[in-house]
Amino acid sequence: MNIIQIVSDTFRRDRLGIYGNNWIHTPYLDRFGAMSTVFDKAYICSFPTVPARYEFLTGKVAFPTRGWEPMPRDQTTIAEYLREKGYISMMIFDTANLIRHGFNYAKGFDAFEWIRGQEGDEYSIDYMNVDLGTPPEKLRSGWQHNLYQHRRSTAKRYQEREYFVAKTMSTACDWLERNYKWEKFFLYVDTFDPHEPWDPPEWYIRLYEKYWNGDRLDYPIGGPIKDRFSQAEIKHIRAIYAAEVTLVDKWVGRLLEKIEDLGLFKNTMVIFTTDHGTQQGEHGIMMKGQGMYEEVCHIPLFIYYPGVKSGQRAQALVQIPDVAATVVHAAGAPELEKLDGYSLLPLLQDKKSILRTIAPCSPNLITQKSTYSMSITDGIWSLVFFNDGRFPELYYLPSDPKQLKNIISEHKKQAYNLFTQFIEFSRKYRAPKDVLEYLKETVKIL
Fold this sequence. Notes:
Alkaline Phosphatase, subunit A; alpha/beta; 4-stranded antiparallel beta sheet; 16 strands; globular; single chain; 8-stranded mixed beta sheet
């Protein structure tokens, strides 16, 4: 059994047709979803990019103990587990955070290829007069370096095949052409798109917006939108993100076509997912992290497994560490019990299996106690918790999937029960004593 995992950063679940979107073009991923098992209640666990990658690549829950930090030298990765079963492993990525500044998230892979230049990657230091095209107050505060770097690295890009997701998926296609005859391989493909900066080719933007002559808002500041962005600007931001989504769909589709061309669907498990979503005006917020609502935490997840009936919809709660456990299980590696995640292979056969009772989504509890927002859901109720003075919010997802009606005042006991389960989850996955005491004090407001 070969294994191919595709991760696309900041890919909103509700921007895919197979999850109900009716205005964004995603034909390739919708087709792939139709031949796969679609998980309707897949959630992130640790937030954001780097902690989520830690979970993808180790199967360990991160947020009670770890944040934005390098892969530990003594941490065993799933690539190392698979090596014991005779797998060749390859990582192909343009998500610079995986390896720049010594982060070492390619640990254990037999080889890797890094497509340079995304966001703040110091790929080009050529002198140029960079015009950000946006007033500083509308840019992500403190992140202008990333945008300057991105502008430099893409200044000579003209054709679609030169865009990062195109290069990453093309590199993966080339690797498969050279290596598809290996007896067993694990190919991990990770693209930063559709993460901001949102700068797809113009013809993709025109699918969703005919004309724009305002500020260049491809890297907007996060936080409250009030007094920062007009409704026209929010509509524009949604349009360029939609264009970025369609670009990703097109090039992930190229990789899926190559898998089909090489006859690999008959003996290869293929996974598509993301690390988190983002917000674009929902709940009065721009970008991720200010409120862990469904737009951020509820993610797409497709798993194709040879011989399993296509078009299934799995309703069980699942999280990112479960994806790693599924890879290890599919490879027949015996280390499954060492992981924090649960294999999803049983769900492909029995859609009624229950693996989790809650899905908590949180940044690191040690370093971000003063700034965190978190959410806890059991798939029906969703509790959104803050640490900036706002009172927690509770939503009933079956009738309010967009979380528009906060009903915590009528259901404080339900909210309390969810948060106490979150504390127990944190205890189970190694939260330090001081963090647990902090959470116990926090829950008292309910």
